[in-house]
Every structure is written in structure tokens, then in C-alpha cells.
Recover the amino acids of this structure.
């Protein structure tokens, strides 16, 4: 079942400790647009199906990335798109949004998503070690 927009924003707001829903909304849209530019195929579609419709549209409609961004560059790109953000605040924004998105995905989907991304994204999603192959 798809999470509702208000519930998603409330979760991002709480996780990110934002003073307003507007800030949570801004972070969610930027981070999901950047993530959508890096995901393809069924993984992107499966994650979108679990997100609120507004988030799903943002995730599904970005231009594809010219090259994959490592986690540090992903954070810097987020900072560049959020007015007044620094790399430190963007790290917080990324973690708040991606960890809520990860909560909506099961472990199998998260593993498949992480396989599409450069190493280190498991930390951005709040799932350290999930990208490592099972023994």
C-alpha cells in the first residue's frame, strides 16, 4: 500500500527535525529527484509504487544522470539545489529523506537499489552494510 503524502512529509519532518513541513517538502523533492536520476528499471518503479504519488512522480521523471554520483557528490549536488544549504545540512536532508524511503522498501528491494548505486549509499539510506553480499 502506498504511503500518503502527509504521512511521508511528517516522517521526513520528524527524522530531519525540520521546523516546518515546507522544509521537509523541499528536501524530499530535491533528494528524490536526484535519486531518480540515478535509478533505472524495475527498482525505480517498485520504489515509486511505495512512495506517495507526488514523490513517485518526482522520482520517475528526472533527466537521467550523465554519470553516477558517489555519495559525497550526491550530497554536494543536494546542497547545490537547496538554497542556503551546506554540505552538512544537505547530508542531514539526504539522510532524512532516504531513510524514510528505505523504510517503505523491503530488504530485497533496498539491496537491488544499492547495487545500482556507487558504494557508500547504504549509509545515506541509513542501512549500513546492506549493500554487502550475503555470506
Amino acid at each position: 500500500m502506498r504511503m500518503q503524502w502527509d504521512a511521508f512529509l511528517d516522517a521526513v519532518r520528524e527524522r530531519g527535525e525540520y521546523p516546518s513541513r515546507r522544509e521537509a517538502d523541499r528536501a524530499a523533492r530535491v533528494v528524490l529527484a536526484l535519486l531518480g536520476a540515478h535509478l533505472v528499471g524495475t527498482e525505480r518503479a517498485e520504489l515509486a509504487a511505495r512512495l506517495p504519488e507526488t514523490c513517485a512522480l518526482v522520482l520517475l521523471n528526472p533527466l537521467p544522470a550523465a554519470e553516477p554520483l558517489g555519495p559525497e557528490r550526491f550530497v554536494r549536488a543536494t546542497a547545490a539545489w537547496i538554497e542556503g544549504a551546506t554540505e552538512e545540512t544537505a547530508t542531514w536532508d539526504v539522510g532524512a529523506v532516504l531513510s524514510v524511503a528505505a523504510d517503505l522498501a523491503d530488504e530485497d528491494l533496498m539491496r537491488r537499489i544499492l547495487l545500482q548505486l556507487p558504494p557508500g549509499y547504504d549509509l545515506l539510506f541509513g542501512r549500513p552494510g546492506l549493500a554487502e553480499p550475503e555470506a
User: Anything to note?
Assistant: The CA atoms of residues 33 and 60 lie 8 Å apart. The mean pLDDT is 92.
